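Posting for a labmate who doesn't have an account.
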Amino acid sequence: MQRIERDLKNRVRAQLGLPPRPTRQSLTPSEYAQTKGIDPSYDLPHSQQDGQDKGTHLDDVIQTLLFPEQMERKLAGIRDNARTALSEMGVNVLHIAFGYLEWYENDTSDRRLFAPLLLHAAEVERTLVRQTYRYFIASTGDDSEVNLTLKERLLADFGLVLPIFEEEDTPEHYWVKVEDAIKDRQRWRVRRFVTVGLFAFGRLAMYHDLDPERWPDEQALHLHPVLVELLGGSNPGGALYAQDYDVDQPEVAAKVPLLITEADSSQFAAIADVMDGKNLAIKGPPGTGKSQTITNILAAALAKRMKVLFVAEKMAALEVVKKRLDEAGLGEFCLELHSTKARKQDALESLRKRLELQYLPEPSTLTDIIEEHERLRKQLTRYVELINEPFGQTGKSLQQLFWAGTRACARSRELGLPAHLDDVVLDGTLNLSAVDLDRQRDALAAQEATWHALS
């Protein structure tokens, strides 16, 4: 009905020689905003200017120059990409940029460049309301930071030092400080833009960490033995496969004080090598136990009072290992410094919990448990040694003889032989050799054949 009414009004306007009524489809977002009485300028108003402080720009609604369909696609893309970066790299790249610097590469350039000044980490959530998504943005609680990339660029190319963002500064105060710093630059100015976007500056922090000026001469990075071996290579001759260890030997067991998850011989060998101070690469297809091997390495290192820094390219790898440590009761020894756990408030809360941690087992209790564990392990080790020792002159171990006897008993029952045969004892078994056993086996086989022939 509304469309019919609008078509009728357009015909009347055409008969009167008036232009068609503007529609959203025929106007740009800026033009359409102006028809609705909305200022399309990206620049935020100054405080106490034109009464703007009475309500406009002070509510919880963000104004954008996007139509609903475009807005939905844009917000969904920002949210999905931010979540992907967080899950894969453990880094939050979603930020709110407060203020932009409009600058030029040189005095003759006509190309305007824009770079954010302040960045504040944020997160976006959405809820479904009447078949439409509503998006909400909130701060992660971290402090705002100066755009380090812009700071380094201005210092390197122009010798210009961006001012420090002090704890008591507001964006307004900081913009004034920047305006004072660039007052000698022609055409440069601070734009009062506030945008939401994905800004990844993690590599710049790495650049600062690798700066030789930040390291004392006696601890220079190029002198660190591990880095020298990683970057320059090590001497050839190392084994491609880990050496197997006899885990029941005391000197081997002392290398790995404990295991908190299952470990086969190759995994135990890797743990033992790490405890010996060796640098190694653990390779294997998915599902072969690399994460549980790393978990055991971390637990063994903690038992030896070693400090460990565990890093991974994917956050999922960190979470798997952390989950295993939590299940083993070692989660309290971990300080998470990745993704959302790297927030200042979360880090402080984590430290507070550890300071308030009261429950620790009594040393005497731990000693008793360890002694009982050692007793049981020695008992099991002795049992394994006994059943694998040669028995008499037979050349066979007790394990082999027991297995052979078990199969013989099962066969006798299948044949229906008298049960009392299981109690037959052969004299002088310790003196029987393998030849004697074969001779008696042949004699029994001959008797069996005779019995079958007579029956």
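Reply:
Got it, the structure tokens are right above this. The chain has four domains: 25-62, 68-208, 245-363, 389-454.
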